[in-house]
Input
Amino acid sequence: MGSIAPILSLKDVRYQWPGRASFGLEVPDFSVAPAERVLLLGESGSGKSTLLSLICGTITVKSGVITVAGTDIASLSAGQRDRFRAEQIGLIFQQFNLLPYASVLDNIILPLRFTRLRRARVPAPRETAKALCMNLGLPKNAVSAQAGTLSVGQQQRVAAARALIGAPPLIIADEPTSALDAATQATFLSLLFAQADEAGSTLLMVSHDARLAEHFDRVIQMSDVSEPARLTA
Ligand SMILES: Nc1ncnc2c1ncn2[C@@H]1O[C@H](COP(=O)(O)OP(=O)(O)OP(=O)(O)O)[C@@H](O)[C@H]1O
Output
């Protein structure tokens, strides 16, 4: 990784869900370099979503330090963390989390409402949203459709466009291809990578699906990142 500062870094991070002594994360050292495409593989229940929640700051570490784009997220108040997340991280959820009755266009520009910094990077939000839709292979008339009326594969592209708009430095994707067949997965990933490249965004994806590995710069197993065996209740 040389002297380039990582976009994401976890050092000596520990987390345990309250009342869940049987599960814990312990991450001695994990980092992602700018523009890397990293796939984090792990079985169901291995803690992938917990790790992403820690990185996004929706749950807070018991000990250790997580930095995103150079900022220690524990140093921020809850409100600052929400703003910081909206500014710095584009999220693609497993279930996409689109507003089903809002238009595709309104879904895509939604993150810009929460952060002036990200909004400032998009002089013409509606035009940018339309361009992202086109580049991600959505039909032209899809932008005005209600998001909930689209197919699963199309909704996934809308979720990707929403994550990419305003070029956040870090894109985090939680099993975004689990509902798709292999050919559609590959197409989606190559479109996502091309758009992430254009935005200069780093991509961290978690999945249980080892078949995705060939598409990524680096593939890591959850068991190499976290050492749950060392935890005590
Ligand atoms: N909100 C929560 N409260 C308490 N325990 C939780 C919570 N969320 C997750 N856990 C527990 O943390 C452990 C890891 O779950 P997590 O969802 O992080 O794994 P995962 O690898 O993302 O699984 P999957 O691939 O099935 O989504 C599990 O034992 C789970 O029950």
